[in-house]
Amino acid sequence: MHLFFRNFLFFGILFFSYWPIVLAEDGLGFLSTGKTFPELEPFDELMEAFVRDNELPGASLAVAKDGRLLYARGFGYANVEKKQPVKPESLFRIASISKPFTAVAMLQLIEQGKLSLDTSVFGLIPHQPHLANGTSVDPRLAQVTIAHLMRHQGGWDRKVTIDPLFHAIEIATVLGKPPPATQNDVIRFMMGWQLDFDPGERYVYSNLGYCLLGRVIEQVTGRVYGDYMVNEFLKPLGIESMRLGKTLQRDRAQNEVSYYPKGDLLGIAVTGDAVGSKVSWPYGAWSIESFDSLGGWIASASDLVRFGSAVDRFEQSGILKKKTVQVMLERPAKGHFGNDEKDKPDATYYGCGWSVRPLKNGKINRWHTGSLSGTSTILVLRHDGLCWAVLFNTNLTHDSKKPSSKIDPLVHKAADAVTNWPSHNLFEN
Question: Where are the alpha helices (DSSP H) in 288-419?
């Protein structure tokens, strides 16, 4: 590790505290928005209790079945101070749920013949590595493929080295430029480091890998990643409000919620007017602009469900061909969640952009979660045609658990409690 960079890792003072949230009730009951349906009351009961009992500021849930949006409601506050409620159309940072979007867009380009799963990533992008004195490029970089990146098998282990996307000041300083480091800066810097394992050897979750995929999309399409995704990927699916987020609070999009971190409340600003000063983590302690393809999108719960339903019903939507979906969801030969240390297949594995769990009936469940300071999200595609997304504007519950993980089994239970699914489709409204 660069000595200068190593020293930087200890820079900054973080404060650990608890952010109390109290939801107001009036004579009408719990603060919630959106249409209600008697048949779907189990979801209402779940969300109201979960937000209240876990002392969360706000949340949004959308549920679709067989491609029809049946449920879209907001709970609690989008902005606690101004008493603004979460609405069904409220936008949240979706964090790593951005990765399935990038993966599916990449698979579309593969279907179009513009590259393949085996395409060498570093043979495609134009970045020149930043090399410290006496170092050389790891020859294994030439072996890193598109498939490796989508499956988190590229060769980087953030527990051994770093997650470079969260070190925008340090990298910029090493490169001799003002912060924050851009995606291209991060890539150049990491190209000067040795890989932690051979590409394809094992699974290790990698934000850097999906950062690289965003740059591959740019090289192949000749378009800026965000522009390509909005105009060529999202709009054809009918997703109009989803967009790339902004770091600073003053740049928050219309209808975007405010974020209330728990745990580490303050970090060192990497962007904006207060670089080097302590700021609220969600608003400057990392640069969401540099996260684009790995975690930079904001969306409503309904946006996510529209996307999930298109993937689940690929034959009707035309988003991908059947053969491509099979590749997307197939089990890697090795290197799953548990690193396959005993040569036994893990029950759950990571495909191309999705966590996958095969079921005994031959069907599968797919999902992805997202987490940032002030944000916790989950998108689920269930085996029976159900698809749901739950978004929170905080990252921890009152007992220091991720809300997305804690609520996951409860949404399954609520869905199982529905005995009569209605026939309406809110997508058509």
Answer: 292-295, 301-312, 314-317, 322-329, 403-417
Q: How far is CA 120 from CA 63, 116, 148, in A?
A: 39, 9, 10
* CA-atom Rg of the chain in angstroms: 21
- For residue 410, the SS3 value is helix
Cβ proximity of 68 and 429 under 8 Å: no
pTM, entire model: 0.92
CA distance 172 to 61: 39
CA separation for the pair 331, 357 (Å, rounded) = 10
Give the mean pLDDT of 172-191.
95
The continuous run of DSSP H or E covering 7 comes out as helix 3-8
* Full set of structural domains in the chain with CATH: 30-99+234-261+302-428 (3.40.710.10)
* Strand partners for 386: 65
Report whether pLDDT(140) > 90: yes
Q: Which residues contact 364 (CB under 8 A, 6 or more apart)?
A: 329, 356, 357, 358, 383
Lowest average pLDDT, out of 67-81, 148-162, 339-353, 386-400, goes to 339-353
Helices within 238-354 (DSSP H only): 292-295, 301-312, 314-317, 322-329
Q: Report which of 62, 81, 14 is spatially closest to residue 262, judged by C-alpha positions.
A: 14
| 263 exposure class (CB count in 10 Å sphere: 0-12, 13-18, 19+) | middle
Q: Is 213 in contact with 109 (CB distance < 8 Å)?
A: no
**Exposed (0-12), middle (13-18) or buried (19+): which is 319, by Cβ within 10 Å?**
buried
- Residue among 407, 58, 95, 24 at smallest CA distance from 260: 58
Count the Cβ atoms, other than its own, within 10 Å of residue 383: 15
Q: Where are the alpha helices (DSSP H) in 313-367?
A: 314-317, 322-329
Q: What does the pLDDT average to over 303-312? A: 98
